[in-house]
Amino acid sequence: MTITTIYLARHGYRSNWLPPPHPPCPTGIDSDPPLAAHGVEQAKELATYLKSLPAQEQPQFIISSPFYRCIETSRPIAESLHLKVAIDRGVGEWFRKNRDTKPVPADYAQLNEFFNDVLIEEQQWPRDNLNVIPLAEGENETDILERAKLFWKAFIPKFQEKFPEVERILIISHAATKIALGSVLLELKSVVDVIDENETYLRAGSCSLSKFVRTNNDKWSIVMNGNCDFLSKGEEMNWDFRRGVEAGSAEDIAQRKAIEESLANQTTEESEIEVDDDDFETYYVTIDVPSNIKVDHDDDVSSNSDQAPKIRNHIIKPSAQLQFSDLTDEHPLVKISNNVTLAEPSAAKGTKSRQVQIDGSKLIDRRIFETSWKRLQGTELVFDENGKFIGKLKEHLVCDNDTKFAVKKRNNNGAAAEDGIAEPDQQGSQASQFLRKAIHAAKQKAAES
Length: 449
Prior knowledge:
The protein is of the alpha/beta class. It has helices at 37-52, 68-81, 108-115, 141-162, 175-185, 250-272, 360-363, 433-448, and strands at residues 5-10, 61-64, 85-87, 168-173, 209-214, 220-227, 285-288, 310-313, 321-324, 333-337, 357-359, 367-383, 389-400, 404-406, 423-425.
């Protein structure tokens, strides 16, 4: 038999998320705190929920990160479902490269002092069984995604061979690792990719539960994303990689506190101050560049390979310059410039041709896009480069990749026709009324100058 269902859960509320003083780490290992009393209650609520599922949906095996808080979260579940808990470093905590220490978690011998009643016999599933171990120097976002890939590649066949009767497993891990594991199952390209057309991110609140099921084509589909409905206080401490700090770290807690204080102060100010409609305010907006950039013949792309080019990425780089038309319009125009990167070196002569990878950042450079406003679901938070909360945004612009602009050819005198005013390419898209008005106004202004 094969694994058909994978549950991914994050550990419960940590004791060091509360104001000090904090209890010592039971294992004596740095950054290995126990759960707070509230976290223990969350773990019990998760156990009650899993026990309430039909027998054919309940987990049959539990894999936990070796860190104390994860096994403590596993305990009531294991007791409720009459299961044992195995530990594996492949689903351990994510520590960033710039961190002073990167703790190594406890092994079975150390953890049996606290969890002897729930841990599996070490020989059945050794802690380093798969030899998938976080990098000693720390990990960036690419590293943890790669670790998740290595884990699933090694874990699924080895586990199915050793435990062929098990179809449903539960993995209890950490926010970053939970997101990385889910991203690989869904074949996302990064840990910050959305999972659907509604711009939904993988969620990882404390003691949240996600569920993935194997489809007929041997892929994985998510049917539950960070569910917290069974928790008495709902979702708490949700985190994702956009926050720019380690989940649950001192920096994370400080960020959350600053946000709470800022929002509280903002509410107080709004209730006390009468704002003039003509006053200015800082307004943050996100921009979605097309994810299906088409490679044209004039995009300076060449290859000896017979394979279709593959777009490596499509991002707006920090060095990029953005120009906008009137943002109060329904369809503002945006031009992205200074977004090029150095080209990759070509393969040496005589080497086997390979699939060409195109930098999507170059494909959007100097392009003009017509955009549309789209309301965000919820509110996104904006932080500066130091991780300080500076504002929030509720809307973003979505670029239309179908409406194209082409610079007019020069006339016989060598001057650009109509002073180089771009015209929209109507193939595949009907230009908006604003777009036509904008081009007409631009022509008039050019004629008057």
